[in-house]
Design brief:
The chain is mainly α. The protein has a three-stranded mixed sheet with strand order 2-1-3. A hairpin with a 6-residue loop joins strand 1 and strand 2. Helix 2 crosses helix 3, helix 4 packs across helix 5 and helix 5 runs parallel beside helix 7. The radius of gyration is 19 Å and the shape is elongated. The chain starts with 9 loop residues before the first helix and ends with a helix.
Length: 217
């Protein structure tokens, strides 16, 4: 049994959420920016933390998470706060870009980091962040940027597997990328040991890649 090169690159195989599976959320109107209530959202911990003051109406409109956190029946304050200590400020900044532009355009290029692997990591953090506010549209926005990356590294693939649930679209992307790179022998010789160690360390990834290789046989 010989493995053949996949006919499609991962960017063409990764699927975003079906429209039918997305919650019905209308595009935010300008009126949502005019409310009096503002929310101080602090993301990250320690010196790396960043805080934004954001319109409450906008956050609760797009996110069931923020809606539940900020619309408690006993809360009467017009200024509240939310702490997202475990999340990444750069990823949240990406979320804000989506929140205010409401676009899924693949062509939008907004450099987020100094190197390709760090930039891919930010997009992965953004997809993971999207699980918390329950924003599948934002996750699709992040996934489109992930899928069009031309460089990915073992730590990005490991992040995709260790921090996302089984069956997630990001896991599927990661397995497709590794399978595609292995069958096309596009891994740099200097990185081959790191890739081999990753496959031993992340058993689910190894299993998914083997399944893809069987599929492509």
């Amino acid at each position: 049994m010989t493995s053949q090169t996949p006919t499609k690159p991962p960017s063409e195989e990764v699927k975003t959420h079906d429209e039918a599976q997305k919650p019905e959320v209308k595009k935010p109107s300008i009126a949502l920016l005019e409310g009096k209530a503002s929310i101080a959202v602090t993301v990250g911990a320690g010196e790396a933390a960043a805080t934004w003051k954001l319109p409450k109406d906008l956050l609760t409109h797009v996110s069931p998470f923020f809606n539940a956190a900020l619309n408690q029946p006993w809360s009467e304050s017009t200024t509240e706060s939310v702490d997202l200590v475990e999340d990444d400020p750069a990823a949240f900044r990406f979320f804000l870009h989506w929140l205010y532009s409401w676009t899924l355009a693949k062509s939008e290029k907004q450099p987020l980091a100094v190197s390709p692997d760090l930039e891919t990591m930010v997009y992965l953090q953004a997809w993971i962040l999207g699980n918390k506010p329950c924003c599948p549209r934002f996750q699709d926005f992040a996934l489109r940027h992930i899928a069009c990356r031309t460089a990915f590294f073992p730590d990005c693939i490991e992040k995709a597997y260790t921090d996302t649930p089984v069956g997630s679209t990001v896991r599927k992307w990661a397995a497709l990328e590794v399978n595609y790179g292995a069958t096309k022998r596009s891994f740099k010789p200097s990185n081959r040991e790191a890739w081999a160690a990753l496959m031993e360390r992340v058993e689910d990834l190894a299993i998914d890649v083997v399944k893809l290789q069987i599929r492509d046989t």
